[in-house]
Amino acid sequence: MSADPHYDLIISGAGMVGASLALAVRQTGLRVAIFEKRPQALCAMPDAYERASLVAAGSGRFLQKIGIDVATLGSTVERMRVWDAETTGSIHLDAEEAGEAFLGHILENRRLEQALHAAFADQGVDVFYGREIRAAWADQEQIHISASGNGDSRNGESGDRAYRSALLAIAEGRQSVLRKQLIQAPIFHEAYGQDAITATVWMEKPHRNIAYQRFLPTGPLAVLPFRHDSAGHPRASIVWSARHTLARRLMQMDDAAFLAALHQAFGPQLGHFVRIGKRNSYPLSGLHSSRYIGDRCVILGDSAHGVHPLAGLGVNLGFRDVQALTESIQEARSRHEDWGGSSALRRYQRARRPDNLANVMACGTLSHLFSNRSRGLSRLRDMGLLGTGLLPPVKRFLIRQAMGLQGDYHATPHR
Length: 415
Ligand SMILES: Cc1cc2nc3c(=O)[nH]c(=O)nc-3n(C[C@H](O)[C@H](O)[C@H](O)COP(=O)(O)OP(=O)(O)OC[C@H]3O[C@@H](n4cnc5c(N)ncnc54)[C@H](O)[C@@H]3O)c2cc1C
Known about the structure:
By secondary structure, the chain is of the alpha/beta class. It is built from 12 helices and 22 strands.
């Protein structure tokens, strides 16, 4: 008999997706360990870039159920205004129309991660910071894991160490090494030819909890309602997607020139942009793994799929993966089945692959449709946008998508 520490679930990657999986599964009573390659000190620091995400209302409800109070972490989005720089088309989405108080929240990624880390540590998840899983191999009953690192772990361990688990969940983000080693499936990858520039900006007028998105021929510009600063000044979190050459130029500008360019690109709705925090830029691409499962292992979140940020969907799809995997584990346990076995994993894959693939494709199509100067496409855009204005049921559907109202999370503690 091996004396290696044994867990019911081991997770690689404690970003928003891996961390929420650790918490959700731990709350069902299973023994969970999580490996995160960043040192603990880095995870505990504020993010100088204040990178933020739109967390849809459906995801917010899931987070709330696992004990994360999203309302205290970010600002609400009550309305969305989406319009096209080249045509008259526009969409207005109001939470009220769907009978809800809000469409979602703008949450700072790092603050959400920190809330999740604090909660899972509190509830007895074993967390290994500064450690990576180097190799894993499965047999009939478990997956054997070899982890190494530089010893920055809560338990004071260092060097190589072996672990065992019924299941390994890989939530390492897009560049996942374990996905390549253990899933070995063909990956769909589409470069959009754009970079997204993110930053916090201060503006003259309050955002009134409206999320704006303007489609420019060079790419979409989102201005999202962010929490006020400590002096009560209104702020927004921007995601400006632009072709590589323009994005490079924008990144090279000084703050004053960038803010002037932003004002020109966005328009006068919020008055002048008066100050900006640190800018960062990310190359944009669509990604989808043709398989999510291997021998006693599974991928989720950005390790499995990546979308253009124009719909604010990325981490929301990841939270749907977390809910589906947690429910699949629960279902296997209630049937006295092996939750790391192929039938439970296939259930998870069946539940998530169609939704993820459809959204990767839809976001790619929208990006092409709106980031193009052709007249025909411009007319199509116009018709599409006006169509949604004319068709309240379509609009309601769009709101429900935006809010992630796809069914609620049911996993409960197992007895
Ligand atoms: C500009 C931009 C704007 C976006 N806006 C939105 C938005 O508004 N709404 C939305 O839903 N989504 C948005 N997204 C997408 C969202 O950021 C991602 O979907 C989300 O961060 C994915 O979370 P994750 O936990 O799967 O991966 P990640 O956030 O990449 O986390 C992976 C974690 O795994 C760790 N890790 C990596 N390798 C290893 C290893 N070998 N061992 C151990 N740990 C490892 C990493 O350190 C990290 O902590 C946006 C993306 C971009 C680029």
